Amino acid sequence: MQLAGCVTDVAGIRVGHTSRVGRGWSTGTTVLLLPPGTVGGVDVRGGGPGTRETDLLHPSATVSEVHAICLTGGSAYGLAAATGVMDYLEGRHVGFSVGSAAHEVVPIVPAAVIFDLGRGGRFDNRPDAEFGRRAATAARAQPAASGAVGAGTGARAHGLQGGVGAASTLVANETWADGIVVAALAVVNSSGSVIDGDTGLPWMAGDTRLRRPSAADRGVLQAHLQTVTPTLNTTIGVVATTAHLTKAECSRVATVAHDGLARAIRPVHSMLDGDTIFAVATGRDELPPDRARNVMLNLILAAAADCFAVACTNAIVSAKSTGGSLAYRDLCPSAFPA
Predict the structure, then answer these.
(1) What's the pLDDT band for 255 if we cut at 50, 70, 90?
(2) Domains with residue ranges and CATH for the chain
(3) How far is it, in rounded angstroms, from Cα 80 to Cα 45?
(4) pTM for this structure?
(5) Three-state SS annotation for 112-124
(6) Which of 179, 218, 240, 251 is 20 to 30 Å apart from 110, CA to CA?
């Protein structure tokens, strides 16, 4: 089974971005539309999270099915984008049924935000419900764009252009000819750095094969990183799998995915971060019972951490500057093969 290195490698998931840059704007929204029966979990860390519907993902809460995930800029104001996603789903009668009629539904759309207020020039330019609706409308099953797009448009990562990155892998088992898919999508807007200032390379290798930057480029990078002052930041994202998991198991996947975040970004979970990772399971692949289930679950957990780490790196390596901060490729062009 050939994977594209995107969260859409998990069959049934669709991803859409909407972005706005220029004339005082630098922000956007990313939406994941999920197939019927998808179960969700979450792990929220850091000192300044901005989230919506995360309590509903607790294992003790009534609703287990999740219909979409909304990741967006705009800090707490940007949570309004999730309303647009709800409107989009309601118009298609997708949601938790609360009445006898087909249209009587409440779409479950957990959301998380990054802080990018004012980075385009105007503090009051931020995503609203229309951003969420447009991102949902644009959602496709094909590999989605990465870099400074969608929720990563106005992202910054320790003085570098941030962005959206993705990764995927297969968890092998003799029961499934194609394997269980585990994938991640990360929006990197971190106070910590994805790049090791001494080597000029990411802490965690990504999909792009990089060379050690020249001494001159490393010097430019180090000088740039030394000028960085702490800002309000957050890294958010989603881990998805084709496995059939419970809400509690999804939350464990999200928890372990934070280990991958810590490998790729240093430091993380500070008082200036609101790091939040969702986990969703589409249920295509049943796990074996008893002890064998725990063995497979551990493999999924390890894959979740690996994928999220790689996704964080891919976000920075693929990003091109939207005008607010220089991108890694601007400072270390020698790292990229000609």
Answers:
(1) very high
(2) 7-323 (3.60.70.12)
(3) 21
(4) 0.96
(5) EECCCCCCCECCC
(6) 179
